[in-house]
Each structure stands twice: as C-alpha cells, then as structure tokens.
Amino acid sequence: MNILLLNHYAGSPRHGMEFRPYYLAREWVRAGHRVQIVAASYSHVRARQPEVVGAPVDEVIDGIAYRWWPVPAYVGNGVGRVRNIATFLWQVWRDARRQVEAFRPDVVIASSTYPMDIWVARRLARLAKAKLVYEVHDLWPASPVELSGMSPRHPFIVMCQKAENDAYRDADAVVSMLPKVAGHMAAHGLDLAKLHIVPNGISPEEWAGDAPPLDAAVRERIARERAAGRAIVGYAGSHGEPNALDVLLDAAATMRDEPVSFVLVGDGHEKQRLAARVAAEGLDRVVMLPPVPKAQIPALLAEFDIAYIGWQRVPLYRFGIAPNKLMDYMMAGRAVLHSVEAGNDPVAEAGCGLTVPPESAPAVADGLRRLLAASPAERAAMGERGRAFVQAHHTYPVLADRFLKAVT
Q: Which terminus has fewer CB within 10 Å in the chain: N or C?
C-alpha cells in the first residue's frame, strides 16, 4: 500500500521527537509498503529542525519519504503557534491535488495532535479515493481546556471541537493511543466499531547489544553522586508543567538528609525556573543535566536506581495515559515510582514499581523510601517484570502490524 501520514510534529532519529510516526513508518516500509510523511519544518518538540527555506524539501530517511513544509518558528502556545499550524495546513491543502497525483495514497492518516489536520487529510483521501484514518495522541480540545484552562468558548477551542467531531464522523477508522476514550468519543459522534487502541512503544533494536556509551560529563556527574554513597532517583524527559517536577523537588527537599540524589535529565519550558528553584532552596542533591541523544537513553537509564514519572491531578487523565518515557523506563529494567491518578496504570499492570497519588510530595517521598528499602534483587525483579511487559505488548513491530490491520 501507499500510506500518507500527515503529522505536523513528526521527527526522526536525526531530528528528535516526535518518534512514533518514524517508528511506525519504518516498520511499514520494512513490510513492503511505501510511506510518505508530511510534516512542518518547525516543531517545538524537535531537537533539530530540517533546513527548509521558501519551498518544501523532500528527504528520505530509512526508506521513508519525508516532505517538510516551510513554516514560521514560534515560542510557547500563543499566536505564533497558531500561525505555524495555519501555515502548514494551508500549504498542504493547497498542494493536495499534486500530492495525490504524485503519491497515489491508499490510506491517509491525520496524526498531528491538534485535530484540524483532519480537514486536510479528508481532502487528500477524497481526492485519492483512499481510506481516511484519524490518530489520537491527546484529546483536543479537552487537553487545552482541562490542562491549560482555556475557555470552551474560545474561538480556537470551538474550532478544535468542530474538527474533532468531524474526524469521528468522517474517518473510516480512529486509532487512539489512550485506552479509555470510548465514552468520550461516542459522545462526540464516533461509531465505536471504528475505534482501535494502539499504544506507544519502543524499538527493540535500540535495546539490542551494547548501548552507545553515555556522554563522559554526564556519566562522571552521576558517578560523583553515587561515590558519596547515595542512590540515584532519575527523571529523563521534558521539563514542562504536565510533568509535575515541582512535586519531585518538594520530595527532594524533605529527603535532603537521606542518602539519595535526584538526577533530572532533559529540557523544556520549565527547566530554567526549576533550576532557579533548586539554587534558591539549596537543593544540592538535585542535579539538573541537559538532554542526551536518544541512542544514549539506555545507558543513561542504567545509571538510575529508581526512575520517576509524575503527572498533575487533572480529570483529563481519566481517558488514560501513554507516555513514551515510561516505556523506556520499563525496557531499561528500572523500578519505577509512578505518581498518577489515571484511567490506566502500566506500572501497576506490569508490577514494575509503585504507584502513589499525584501532586503529593509526602506520597512521593514515602514511595521512594519504600523502593529504596527494597533490596537490589527485589528492585531488579520489578524491572524485569516491566521489561517483559513492554516486550509482550509495546514493541513497534507488533504495534505497526496492529495499526494496519485495524485500518485496512
């Protein structure tokens, strides 16, 4: 088949997040399909942007054909980001007929986090007489309303709601990463016979053999904490408001006299503020490090005794969660402390750690103490259960096959 995947934020190993479009597409190419990813030239989640000036640029990465459309850069979630979205969608809409004639897609997938790409994907699918698939990463407009406090009457939110409703009505299939969405989608018009759950996952080959060594400066910094006789509680990922890292710092403050160090690796909108807080409060056992290349993630996670992931307490998570970093934690065989209240809990399902309530520093501190009190063998057994769970349910060869069987 010819599969056209429309994802504004698509990345690659060369560019950074987001990785799911790349991993799915790579498996489809390996299975003999042709894949075209249509993406924007600028995304806030990428570590490196493709070089695009004035006209779209075509590139082939691991057999996947990428088309990068030029768009303006932006900072934050204001008017600049809206302009970026609108520019991308308008260009792809305007080019739809040429794109269809050149690629002749059998399947068109709308997969850009925000739902307005369904209108462009629908145009492409109708021109090509192709199947139309809507892939849900996060529920929009529920996410900006419930997480960011936007008014349901805001014009942008009204537009998102129209797009979401149109997607459920017009798509031939809907694929969701979130597992508990059936009631919400049915309330917005989806025939649930169209719904298929395909969660996030990992690429097994990235975990095969010896991992590339960790950057020496990062390795040595962590080694200094361990040499002081302290266990390592680690977090690797985005430093944003949804990640609830203030709660982890609150827990670190209460544990400042205990033999534990907190290592936070990554970047994001909140990192500068969090670093300032660490300095102001004298949290000298909190180490904040820059992001490491994706290939070094296995080596980084091997340095952690306990891997932490936290969430805000928001009703939105009743629909479920599908975090990439948790799949990495589990594949690395780490015992996990999960601070969450959600419709699903992979840590509890796998038995690979402890789950405590969100937004509670005392609960996080207590959970960390309980895991640290366990023997290394007990924590290793938790980690092995997590790895087995991911290998059984969350590898991209399995997920890519499940995706195509669901939509064809």
A: C
